């Protein structure tokens, strides 16, 4: 395989049919979650993919690398050198539409209602996420703050753990993770749950680590291969779920609507209302 000018993902796809069952399991995991694989140790990947460490070492050698560490380094290089020419406008729009259609089929409205009730009963709401999921976490905090809730977000793992350690049963925490296997987010959510907070994961990682440490899981369609840059579909799906919860919260807490109206009135002074106004 060393002479073939293919990336790791392409190599795995090319030899997939010739692999043994256990090797296929690790190959599928690398193909679907390359951005996570580069952050895991061989023992962590072994546990997540449910294969032996020897299998991971063997497939690394089959791909032309001395071991898993060498494969990780090369994979990280490949993911950082994505060609933006591959992304076309129509394909982006199609990806979002397809993801939202899938989301509409898997969303559990009863769980949305249950989570909304917990939010209404809470004193504080927190959103945890790193990377592109951190952007969604920030948006969630903004959304609920505007309606009068005490809401905050943290994309720094240390601040997540520090805040989680002081939570109680009147706190709701959302863990945002496309894969569900980001170590920092999983650990932060576990600390929050151990502190008696009500914890919710929004993830595309079915049977992922984050689902093991939270009270409720809301699934989004899996994003699959990200190829070094965040895909737009999980971000749109995560934000859509937050809006579903938010709208249910507004139906349960009517005074929140009045707070939003008041905020909108206050924000008017920050906008240009006429073309004749000077900058």
From TrEMBL:
**What region holds the HTH rpiR-type domain?**
6-82
Q: Which residue range or ranges hold the SIS domain?
A: 115-255
One biological process term from GO is: carbohydrate derivative metabolic process
The record's listing under Gene3D superfamilies reads: Glucose-6-phosphate isomerase like protein, domain 1, Winged helix-like DNA-binding domain superfamily/Winged helix DNA-binding domain
Which CDD domains has this protein been placed in? SIS_RpiR
Top-rank taxon, per record:
Bacteria
SUPFAM superfamilies attached to this UniProt entry? Homeodomain-like, SIS domain
Alphabetized, the UniProt keywords read: DNA-binding, Transcription, Transcription regulation
Q: Name one Pfam family in it.
A: HTH_6
Q: Report whether Flavoprotein shows up as a keyword of the record.
A: no
For this protein, what is any one GO molecular function term? DNA-binding transcription factor activity
What is the protein name for this chain? DNA-binding MurR/RpiR family transcriptional regulator
């Amino acid at each position: 395989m060393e002479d073939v000018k293919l990336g790791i993902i392409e190599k795995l796809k090319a030899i997939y049919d010739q692999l043994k069952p256990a090797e296929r399991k690790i190959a599928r995991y690398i193909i679907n979650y390359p951005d996570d694989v580069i952050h895991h140790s061989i023992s962590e990947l072994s546990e997540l993919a449910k294969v032996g460490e020897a299998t991971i070492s063997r497939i690394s050698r089959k791909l032309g690398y001395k071991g898993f560490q060498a494969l990780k380094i090369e994979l990280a290089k490949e993911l950082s050198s994505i060609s933006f020419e591959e992304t076309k406008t129509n394909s982006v729009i199609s990806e979002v539409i397809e993801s939202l259609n899938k989301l509409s089929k898997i969303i559990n409205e009863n769980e949305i209602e249950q989570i909304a009730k917990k939010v209404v009963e809470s004193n504080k709401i927190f959103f945890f996420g790193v990377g592109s999921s951190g952007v969604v976490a920030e948006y969630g905090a903004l959304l609920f703050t505007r309606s009068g809730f005490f809401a905050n977000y943290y994309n720094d793992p240390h601040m997540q753990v520090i805040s989680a350690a002081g939570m109680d049963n009147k706190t709701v925490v959302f863990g945002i993770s496309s894969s569900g296997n980001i170590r920092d987010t999983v650990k932060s959510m576990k600390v929050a749950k151990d502190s008696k907070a009500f914890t919710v994961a929004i993830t595309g990682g079915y049977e992922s680590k984050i689902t093991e440490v939270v009270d409720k899981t809301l699934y989004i369609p899996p994003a699959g291969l990200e190829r070094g840059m965040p895909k737009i579909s999980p971000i749109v799906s995560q934000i859509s779920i937050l809006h579903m919860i938010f709208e249910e919260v507004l139906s349960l807490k009517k005074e929140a609507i009045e707070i939003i109206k008041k905020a909108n009135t206050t924000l008017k002074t920050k906008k240009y209302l006429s073309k004749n106004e000077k900058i």
